[in-house]
């Protein structure tokens, strides 16, 4: 799958992978501010391999990752889109939508049709054209152990 970037002659290919350069993926997590200091970057290959699907948007000129997204699922009933991010300079070019479409297709082709995500505030308009709607009557929740609270508090200072 390819998309025209705003730069002439440049395309982005979406690849579903089981491995990728860990430093490129780490850079995308850092760009989204989703990587915590206590996470071990050496675990990125496991994160990729153990995802139900892991998509990488690859720049045709540099061959480097300009976006990524993954799906967590048991492969039977439910799936969750996780960690969808595109480099700032490649946003609003269709890269994110293509990544999302590839991940959705992967799930649907395998019979997994209940697909959800938790969107960051202000990103609903990105997801709704792809068929996502608000889950009225549901509240996203996160487990907040004492250990997690200490880590969260340390990040605030």
Account of the protein in words:
With 157 residues, this protein is α+β, with helices and mostly antiparallel strands. The chain has helices at residues 22-31, 44-49, 95-109, 124-127, 146-156; strands at residues 2-4, 11-16, 53-59, 65-73, 78-86, 114-116. It has a single domain (2-156), classed as Gcn5-related N-acetyltransferase (GNAT) (Aminopeptidase), CATH 3.40.630.30. The chain has five helices and six strands. It has a six-stranded mixed sheet, with helices on both faces. Strand 3 and strand 4 form a beta hairpin.
How would you summarize what this structure contains?
This protein has helices spanning 22-31, 44-49, 95-109, 124-127, 146-156, and strands spanning 2-4, 11-16, 53-59, 65-73, 78-86, 114-116. It is an alpha+beta fold and 157 residues long.
Mean pLDDT: 90
Say what the CATH topology is: Aminopeptidase
CATH class: Alpha Beta
CATH level-four homologous superfamily name: Gcn5-related N-acetyltransferase (GNAT)
The largest sheet, given as strand count, sense and whether it forms a barrel, is: 6 strands, mixed
User: How many domain modules?
Assistant: 1
Rounded Rg:
16 Å
Strands side by side in the biggest sheet: 1-2-3-4-5-6
